[in-house]
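Glutamate synthase, Streptomyces atratus. Tokens?
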Amino acid sequence: MTYLTAPGLPEDAIRARARDGSAAVFPPLDSYGTAVFGGTREPGDEIDALRLAPPVFMPGRLAQLIELGREPLYSDVRLTTGLGGFDAPLPVYVSALGSTRVAGTSLALSRQAGRLGIPMVIGENVAPMNGFRSSGDDHRKGLLERILAYCEELPDGVGGLCVQQSTEDADSEVWNHVYSDSAVSGLLASGRLGFEMKVGQGAKPGLGGLTMISEAVAADLEGQYAVERLTDGGAVLRCSSPGTFTDEIFRRQIQLMRNNYPRARCWVKLFPGRDVGHAADIAWDSGAHAVTVDGAEGGTGWAPTGFLGHVGLPLAECLRRVEPAGRTLLASGRVWDGIRAVKLLALGARAVGLGRAALVAADEDPVHGLERLLDAMALEMRMAVSSLGRYAADETGPEDLWRPES
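Tokens:
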């Protein structure tokens, strides 16, 4: 045949679509369950472009010197944080991890997050896909297994566990099962159980969860999920409903959460939509203890490749549109180091979420990987906050940042 070239176009992607059809809209099938996906660093990543800008004169350092009776050091910075009704040793939580095989490190993450006293979110579709109590699968752990692994390591007085619920989770009454199970009675009694309403995810805003499944599994799930055969070779896409929201529906669902589960904390996760600020205000006004904003850089699961670079607002723009005004805003999206975390705190977040970074850390070392990652982040955060003349993570603000001219 004649070999044609297409200057200026992603030729490999075009040929893949001509060859594989709709299956080529997604990452390669052999990467499913073994890789994590989300927005990649782009030259225009505003958060990366920001610089922390320490002042010459630091009255806060003088106040700390007087209080301590000595020159303060970075090790004097306090990172303890209250977020969404939970207390944590630093302003970090583990973002929602769902039902796919890539979350096979979920028990390792639960144990390490629990040991550290870091709040953790268990993502959507775990119970409908993996089972509530036990899945019997080395890669896909049941919802209660993840909860118990966290609780068994959790010290008194810190941490907390949130369980997400999607439309399909609601059909399975996941929150009802969790709320009434004796395994979480300790969390409830100590105020450390929460439920998170998922409105969307940064990697695929406006879409529900997407999972590749086998034909055998598809036959069992067709009455509960939408499924679509992408190829003749057995690639089946399972789609979760993204849910339908208006101002009033959103407000009423949060109020129902508060009324039906009065002892649980109420979190809401928003995708990076253009009206994210308005949605956050409604959530807080309706009684949400915390609002999570997942920027377009966020995500751990499978998503159409075109979404990762072209759909949804960058996290910096989301934070510009949301005004927490003393309320708890949580932010996630390509966070893996303490410097980016401090920038997000200065932009208004109370704490930052680790998704892909947490998975990679636990994959590297299932026993101590997340602990070591957070040790490094805590060191960087203390140094960065101290350099600004601050001595608590929540004292940072937009005046601590410099934006290069565009």
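The mean pLDDT is 86.
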